[in-house]
Amino acid sequence: MSRPPRHLADLGLAERRQAVAELGEREFRADQLSRHYFGRYTDSAEDMTDLPAAVRSVLAAELLPPLLTSECELTCDKGATRKMLWRLFDGALVESVLMKYPDRVTMCVSSQAGCGIGCPFCATGQAGLTRNLSTAEIVAQVVAGERALRGAAPKTAHTRVSNENPASKPAHSRVSNIVFMGMGEPLANYRNVIAAVRRLTDPVPGGLGISQRSITVSTVGLVPAIARLASEGLSVTLAVSLHAPDDEARDELVPVNRRWKVAEVLSAAWDYAAATGRRVSIEYALIKDINDQAWRADLLGSLLAGHLAHVNLIPLNPTPGSKWTASLPGVQEEFVDRIAAHGVPVTVRDTRGREIDGACGQLAARAVPARTGRAARTAPAAAVADAPHGGTSATPTGIAAPSGATSLPLA
Ligand code: SAH
Ligand code: SF4
After folding, report:
1. Is 95 a catalytic residue?
2. Closest CA to 219 of 247, 175, 249, 189
3. Which residues contact 391 (CB under 8 A, 6 or more apart)?
4. Residues 25, 95, 137, 185: which is the catalytic one?
5. Which of 43, 126, 388, 393 could form a disulfide with 64 if both were Cys (CB 3.0 to 4.6 A apart)?
6. Domain 69-406 has CATH 3.40.50.300
7. Above 70 in pLDDT, residue 343?
């Protein structure tokens, strides 16, 4: 399988200087290039007027190759939620979501094209894994978000706006929070995800300079990788997708539970909290009659009581053809109350972005000509979710990619 082209954001600052030297240029050019990319979000040689013309075109061509091609973009919530579907160099599809709140801007990014874990309620899981994203492919999603905030919307073949309010202005002009809750299991692409976290958080010119504390890595519960993350010395928030407090239900909802049981996953989570001092977010998709019983709420509350934890309940966002649906409102309320009765903080995510799921799925399915068989099988679904410290956040949503081998662009 060929790899994505090498990009500045794959490299640390020292490696960038070396790469520039190998191209026959002075090392400080690497810093100039980095300032353009991480500080001004540009990879266009014409913008780099502080570099000699001949130098900038060579360096941009070698170190800033285009990684993401916009395939479709949709907005809703009066322009506050923006979903982007990207085509990668090999035709694989991934999506990111930009969410503007009064006090922050959150970007939900993908870490893999597809996912190999296979949770039955998740659209990404149903499609299987295509491949890991490179570090730069992850970082580029955030850079694209920064550009979008500045008003430079990427040119896309298909842009549809729902309920747009052109007057709406972001309170923040920069991405302040990142959640690894798009396609993929971040800890199954450990090396590239950690490098991406460093690139997102290193100050300019090393990276984008976003606070580590504003980054949330969501995992299905890969226990050894959680332990490794705890030893990285990073202050990122860990979100654990638990979805059931008992092994019987979790074995079905999260197949990796057959390998690492609820008790082991929670123990790794508490070790993470102890090592970092960070409150762990426990994700729980509420599914009618599957995991929403009162006794499960009580069991969850008792397992979490006294620990540095917070529960994020996510009303299930059913995938097309799903036999499962979200819990009834009264059941959800009781679930919340029972957890809270154990003294455990609990919030329910809002349903931001849901109105355009279907639209985008249709759009992508009609717009995306399959370039490879693997890509054609990819069905991305970004879980649009916000960092837990922000209070409410959006629910998982999907931009469904085509299931067929061919389709035609929209007229
Ligand atoms: N693979 C990682 C991160 C991506 S999924 C993980 O599983 O944690 C982000 C969150 O969205 C997870 O909590 C996941 O379980 C949840 N999710 C996925 N599909 C969903 C759906 N259809 N409805 C509600 N939540 C969903
Ligand atoms: Fe993968 Fe997360 Fe979806 Fe499970 S919920 S299939 S781990 S993306």
Report:
1. yes
2. 189
3. 347
4. 95
5. 43
6. no
7. yes
Which residues are 96's β-sheet partners?
A: 84
pLDDT of residue 162 exceeding 90, the answer is no
Nearest-10 crossing angle of helices 294-304, 329-341: 30
Q: Is the pLDDT reported for residue 58 higher than 90?
A: yes
Is CATH 1.10.10 what the domain over 8-63 is classified as, yes or no?
no
Return the residue whose CA atom lies nearest to atom 3 of ligand 1. 181
The CB of 240 under 6 Å from ligand 1? The reply is no
360 is catalytic: yes
Closest-CA residue to 226 (of 238, 210, 241, 214): 238
**Residue spans per domain, the chain:** 8-63, 69-406
Ligand 1 atom nearest the C-alpha of 184 is 1
Distance 383 CA to ligand 1 centre (A): 5
From atom 8 of ligand 2, which residue's Cα is the shortest distance away? 184
Q: Would the pLDDT of 393 be above 90?
A: no
Place of tokens 């409102």: 329
